[in-house]
Amino acid sequence: MGNFGLLALYVLGFIAIFYFLAIRPQQRQRKAHDQLVSGLKRGDRVVTVGGLHGKIKRTEEDVVVLEIAKNVDVRLGRRAIAEVVTTAETTSSFGQIDSGDGEATED
């Protein structure tokens, strides 16, 4: 009977470790992404999960219309947005990545 109690303790410990190292961080990440997606608005510069960079032109209930170049619009599901990019992140050591008119510039 003592071995069974020790085995049960090990199993419960394993489940607790698995919960705190795998499940709980994933729940937090999902919650943060849901807040990001719900806060999208026109004019935000975003990056999609596929790596497309663009500016939100219009938002609908479950769809975002993203302008990726001049006169080029793409309809994406809101869940496809990976992050909102700030202006400080759009610059690099090579110059401005996107000057807003669809053309890259160099210094």
| Average predicted local confidence, pLDDT | 83
The side-by-side strand order for the widest beta sheet comes to: 4-3-2-1-5
Between the first and last Cα atoms, what is the distance in angstroms? 75 Å
Number of strands: 7
Count of helices?
1
In the CATH scheme, the class of the largest domain would be Mainly Beta
Total domain units? 2
Major pleated sheet: 5 strands, antiparallel
Order of helices and strands: HEEEEEEE
**Sequence stretches where pLDDT stays below 50 over 5 or more residues:** 91-97
User: From the helix content, strand content and strand pairing, which structural class follows?
Assistant: alpha+beta
Report on this structure.
By secondary structure, the protein is an alpha+beta fold. The protein has two domains: about 1-40; about 40-105, SH3 type barrels. The protein is built from one helix and seven strands. It has one helix spanning about 1-40; strands at about 45-50, 55-60, 65-70, 70-75, 80-85, 90, 95. It is rod-shaped.
Features:
107 residues, alpha+beta, 2 domains, five-stranded antiparallel sheet, two-stranded antiparallel sheet, 1 helix, 7 strands
Quick synopsis:
With 107 residues, this protein is an alpha+beta fold.
What is the topological layout?
Elements (H helix, E strand, L loop, with lengths): L1 H37 L6 E4 L4 E7 L3 E7 L2 E6 L3 E5 L5 E2 L2 E2 L11
Antiparallel strand pairs: 1-2, 1-5, 2-3, 3-4, 6-7
